[in-house]
Structures are given as structure tokens and as C-alpha cells.
Amino acid sequence: MPDWCSEGVENIVSETSQVLLSCNNMSAGYGRASICDDITFQLGLGQTIAIVGPNGSGKSTIARTILCRQAPLAGTVRLRGAAVDDRTAAYRSAVSAVFDEDAFFPSLTVAEHLELIARGHGMPDVAANVEYELSFFGLEKHARSQPHELSSGQRRRVLLAAAFIRPFELLVLDEPEQRLDAEMRSKLADRLRRTVAGGAASALVVTHDLELVKDAADYYLVAGARASMVPAEVFQAGQIA
């Protein structure tokens, strides 16, 4: 386990929701240069945190640090009380993530790619699930296409379909609205809301599109030199000091 993921953190149990993910005084940045400091929160099952802020404020850096893709400069991150380690089976089982990178099997078709992920995570009725995701993301006509034959927007939809087709407890989406049209953004917003509403999963969403998370977000993590957590009702009312 990476040394920087193994430090202790105060164990605070939520009275209303089981804590899935917690950050304690985390700082995110590169080298010795911090971009965001003092990131502290607890995310319970059935909750969504939207990570927002202007370009260059560190939104994606925060998400990558939380998921152990880069080392925090300070503080700790825990998933179900254990230090986050992306090499463990528990992490791979719990976390489904989409970042701004094309993570494809280049020799597989779209349908084969989704089928492989569904089977790898033990999904029942794989064919029906693949058919549903192809339909939801408007990819039916591209089921037999390989990634290099798709537009950037279509590749984005494949990545999102791959994230949703598998079981997860934590869904992390880094600017999922990129290269999506207005109709697909609306469908994605509704699906995000429904995904966490059942209480079996939580979400972290990095976004510039506030409409995407308006009905799902419980808190907004406003990125900046000193990040702040703002309740949704306060953020949406524009009452930030």
C-alpha cells in the first residue's frame, strides 16, 4: 500500500448515512506546490458531492488525489474506513470512474468492451445490460465499431456506458458533460440523480455544468487555494460569502 495512503484519520460515524468516503485535511497539488488545501468531508451512501470552480482551480486534481491516482501533499483519504489503495480488489469493486482519458481496449468493438466489463464485474444478464447501455447512450448503430472509428463525443459516451454498466458504490465522473449534446446532458443528469437516490451508491462529480448536478448534489466542494464545502441549498441560492 502506498505510504501516503496509510496514515490515520479520525473515525466519525454519520448518524443518517453510512460513511463511504472521507477526506481529512487533504491537500492536493503537484510536487511541493499545493493547489487546494484543507479538504475535509464525509460522503455517505446515497449522497453526491459536486466539485466545482473555475478552470485551473484544481477540480480534477482533487478528484485524482481522492482516487489515489496521485499523492496528496497532506492529509488522508479513506474508503469504508480503510486507506484508499487503487490496487486492491475492494477498491476496484467499489469505485467506477471516468476521467478525461480514453481508456479503451482498442481491438474490441463497443459492445465487446461493455460485455467484458459487465462480465468482469459479475453482472447478471450481460446481453440485456449491454443492450440497455447502448440504447441509453445512443450507441446502437456503433455497437460493432472500434474506438478509432468513433467521434470524440461517441467515445465519451462509451466511457460513461462502461462506468454505469458495472456495479459500484462510488461513482466518480470528471467533467462528464464534455462533448455531450444538451439532450444527453439532460439524460445523464437524470440518471445520476436516480443512481444515488436509492441509497446504495454515492457520487463525486467534477463539473462546469451546474444543471447536471442541480437535482443530485447534497454538497458543493468549491475548489480553490482553500477549498470549501457548501450545502446545496446555500450554493444554489447564491448565498456563498
Can you describe this structure?
The protein is 31% helix and 24% strand. With 241 residues, it is of the alpha/beta class. It has a single domain (3-103, 168-236), classed as Rossmann fold. A six-stranded mixed β-sheet has the order 6-7-8-3-9-10, sandwiched between helices. Strands 2-1-4-5 form a four-stranded antiparallel β-sheet, covered by helices on one side. Helix 3 crosses helix 4 (126-136). The longest helix has 16 residues, at 182-197. The protein is globular, with a radius of gyration of 18 Å.
Give a short overview.
By secondary structure, the protein is an alpha/beta fold. The protein contains 8 helices and 10 strands.
Keywords summarizing the entry:
Rossmann fold; six-stranded mixed sheet; disordered N terminus; alpha/beta; single chain; four-stranded antiparallel sheet; 241 residues
Lay out the secondary structure:
Blueprint: E1 19-30, E2 33-44, E3 48-52, H1 59-66, E4 74-79, E5 82-83, H2 89-94, E6 95-98, H3 110-120, H4 126-136, H5 152-164, E7 170-174, H6 182-197, E8 202-206, H7 210-213, E9 219-222, E10 228-231, H8 232-236
The radius of gyration is 18 Å
Query: Number of DSSP helices?
Result: 8
- Using the coordinates above, name the CATH class: Alpha Beta
Shape: globular
Strand order of the largest sheet: 6-7-8-3-9-10
Q: How many extended strands?
A: 10
* Overall mean confidence score, pLDDT: 90
CATH architecture: 3-Layer(aba) Sandwich
Distance between the termini: 40 Å
Domains, number: 1
Task: Predict the CATH topology.
Answer: Rossmann fold
Helix content: 25-40%
According to CATH, the homologous superfamily is P-loop containing nucleotide triphosphate hydrolases
Enumerate the spans where pLDDT stays under 50 for 5 or more consecutive residues. Answer: 1-16
**Percentage of residues in strands:** 15-25%
H-E string: EEEHEEHEHHHEHEHEEH
- Structural class by helix and strand composition: alpha/beta
* Multimeric status of the protein: single chain
Largest sheet: 6 strands, mixed
